[in-house]
Amino acid sequence: MTPFMRFLQRLAILALGALTIWFVVFVVFEEADQRMPLVLAVAATYGIAAYIIFPRIVRFGYKLLKRQHVPRYTVTGDGLPGDPVNLVLVGTHEQLRQAFAAAGWFGADPLSLASSWRMTWTFIRNIPYPTAPFSTLFLFGRGQDVGFQKAIDNSPRKRHHIRFWALSTDFDRSDVKTASFWLNADRPPDGERVLWVGAGTRDTGLGLTRLTYKITHATDSDTNAERDFVLSQLEKPGAIGEVRMYQAGDAVDVGKVNHYITDGELPVALLT
Predict the structure, then answer these.
(1) Beta-ladder partners of 258
(2) Rounded CA gap, 252 and 254, in Å?
């Protein structure tokens, strides 16, 4: 892309951002302010902007920038980079479930209106919710297949948690560098021995998402430390075998020759 075209793209993004802010302030807020008290008008404007307008503008902006490269991170529902991939386990779904159960971790309730309300209520009151739901992140064209968590100090505000996506061990290495591979939403059959590609992070409290400002858990930025913690948790009950470390672009040896792209070191372990 030429410098001039890149300049035009950035100018278009800047204009789009300015137009969006103008629309929120002078159209959405003014309309709400005329119909309800100020406090409710501000709350309504925030809800409409953060959960409806900003996500759609961000997705449109990313399309405008033509971000069609192979992702190095999971992706949020708004199309933004999410948690980085930092762990791969090899085995069946039942082995994965038993491994985390042996380590004292819990599965996550399905995300619904009821579970979201319960999560909000327990977060405010700081009372335990060991099976709290996860927000949906996307990899391989679909949301996470399964997730596990462990509360910190028995609080819903802080927790260790990891999402997993199943990836068949039987695929063409050359496909990994194509966007179509990462957008293929096909999940391997249950019971099959697969790669469980994981993204683990530690929730530390309350925060806002970047660009859209949705209310969410704040997370510790050191995902390497969280990766090592998850491994140590699984090693204690003997739920995993030898851990092998791979660099970005290395072939992952799990009985067949495979290829996986990550940002840095990627530990791969067999579930026992």
Answers:
(1) 252
(2) 6
Query: 20-42 in b/e burial notation, b at 16+ Cβ within 10 A?
Result: beeebeeebbeebeeeeeeeebe
Can you tell me the distance from the alpha carbon of 97 to that of 91, in angstroms, rounded to the nearest whole number?
10
Compute the distance between CA of residue 135 and CA of residue 111 in angstroms, rounded to an integer. Answer: 7
**What are the residues whose beta carbons fall under 8 Å from the beta carbon of 217, sequence distance 6 or more?**
157, 203, 204, 205, 206, 207
Cα 215 from chain centre: 15
Q: Are 141 and 224 in contact (CB under 8 A)?
A: no
Cα 58 from Cα 212, distance rounded (Å)? 8
Domain boundaries, the chain: 3-64, 73-271
Residue 129 has φ and ψ, to the nearest 5°, of -150, 80
- The CA-CA-CA angle for residues 233, 235, 237, to 5°, reads 85
Q: In tens digits, what is the pLDDT along the chain, a chain of 272 residues?
A: 677 877 887 788 888 888 988 998 899 999 998 989 999 999 899 888 876 787 677 666 655 554 444 456 787 776 677 788 888 899 999 999 999 999 999 999 988 888 888 988 888 888 999 999 888 888 887 889 999 999 998 888 889 999 999 988 776 656 666 666 666 667 888 888 988 989 988 888 665 555 545 556 577 778 888 899 999 999 999 998 888 876 544 555 544 323 323 345 677 788 87
Q: Give the CA distances from residue 199 to residues 4, 31, 33, 135, 239, in Å, rounded to whole numbers and listed in that order.
A: 38, 42, 42, 13, 18
CA–CA separation, 160 and 104 (whole Å)? 12
Q: pTM for this structure? A: 0.68
